Amino acid sequence: MTRGDDRSQVAAEVTASDAIVIENLGFAYPDGRVALRDVTLRVAAGERIGLLGPNGAGKTTLMLHLNGVLRATSGQVAINGRTITSATVRDVRREVGLVFQDPDDQLFMPTLAEDVAFGPANFGVTEPQLAERVSTALAEVGMTDRAARGPSQLSGGERRRGALATVLACDPDILVLDEPSANLDPVARRELVETLQQLTTTMVIVTHDLPYAAQLCDRVVIMDAGAIVADGPTGQLLSDDVLLARHRLELPWGFRLP
Q: How far are the Cα atoms of 35, 96, 206 from residue 59, in angstroms, in the given order?
């Protein structure tokens, strides 16, 4: 492992700068399939990391632990110093926003504005604060002029940014994005990168898209077979052809790291 070989460093006392602390996390699905094995990871507040790995590596399973959609078989996850338990999970879900790969999972109301209002309203936000949340979130993703449109009237890139707005309106401390660049054309891809680069929120970006991780993240974490196998500076890990090949990852032909 490139960074954090000494697991005791990660298990040390949580500090005010820690947004996410995962300690010895293990998880098995009901059919007995082990998806996470002794995962230990620390993400600082304001940090933006890429979570990389081949299909079946455990990336999405780990992502779903970050706001309690899935609960650990062993070990623990702490968000802003608060361990996720039955008593804390609702508060944690206010702090960790998940942006799923398919925007249809988050866009289901007649208009985009109603979709963006849905989450904060569910958390008890009322007018006039609710309208302010919607307006601010749409402005952050450059979608103010699309507020009255339905999901079917939006392009793929617009729907992806609209889904991001539904999460931003909940004012999370941490954003977790699952394959944000999937199925986007080059312009929509660039527009989403520019949107994400402007945000100061702590981010975990789950992706197969290594150039996307290189554009957005100073640090990447590589998973395989349910475990973290490398953790370090983006340029260092993505220039290690042997490491990438060992875990079925590769940069596109001709791509140059920044």
A: 9, 16, 7
